[in-house]
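S1.2 Input.
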Amino acid sequence: MKDSNLSMLELDLKLGKTIDRFQSSYRPEETRPQKASPCITRPGDKLPIGERFLSEKQKTLLVYIIIFHYWRLDEKHFYYFYLDLREHIVKNPNSFWLIVLLENKDYLLKWLEVQQTIGEGELFGNLLGKEYLSRTVESILVVFEETFRRPRRVVRRKGYKDKGSLPRDSQGVIRQEEKVDRILSELQEQIEREREWKSMEISLFEGFLAGERKLSEEYLILFRIIKQERKVENDEVRVSG
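S1.3 Output.
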C-alpha cells in the first residue's frame, strides 16, 4: 500500500476493527428510517429477494467488497449480498476484475498491500471514514418481494384477435430478416469473445495475487496496482526578438 508498512495481518486487523467500530456505533434510523439495507436488519413481513447497489464508482465498489468481508451480516443477507454484488461488478467493463477481491479475502488483502494507487490515509481516513462509509452503506438496498400486485385490466374485444400471419413471399422481407439474424449472430460472438478475454484476464490477476506470475505494465495499470503516468508533451516555444 502506498505510504504504508502494514503487513497483510496488520491490514486485516485494522480493517476488521474499523468496520466493527463503525457498525457498533451506526444508528441508521436517524438518517433513513424508510429504507431497508442488508446492513440494517429489521424484522418485517416482506420477503427479501435480493440486494441493490446504487453506485458504480470503482472506489465505492471496493468499499462494498470490504463491507462484504468484514460487516456482520446475517446468513440470508450474506448470500444475497454476495450474489448481487458479484453480478453488479461483472457487468462493469472497467471494474470487472474486482470480482477476484470479492471472492477471496486473502486476495483483497494482498491487492491492498501491493497496490500503489491508494494510500493508508485515503483508505482509512476517507473511504472508510464515517461520512463516506455511511453513504456507501446507505447506497445498498434490500429488494423485497411484492406483497400486492396491481390487478390486470380486463380488455374486452369483439371477434378473434389473432388473425394469423401473412404469407412472407416478399424477398425484401426475407433479406431484411437474414440481415437482422446475421447482426445478432455477430453481436453474440462479440459478447462471447469479450467474456473469454475477461475470464483470461481474471486468471492472470488471480495468478499474480497468488504469487504464481508477474504482470506486464499494461495489466498493472488495468488492475490499479500502479498509476498510469500521464505523458506531457513539451511544445517548442519560439521567442521572437
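S1.4 Remarks. Residues 171-209 form the longest helix (39 residues).
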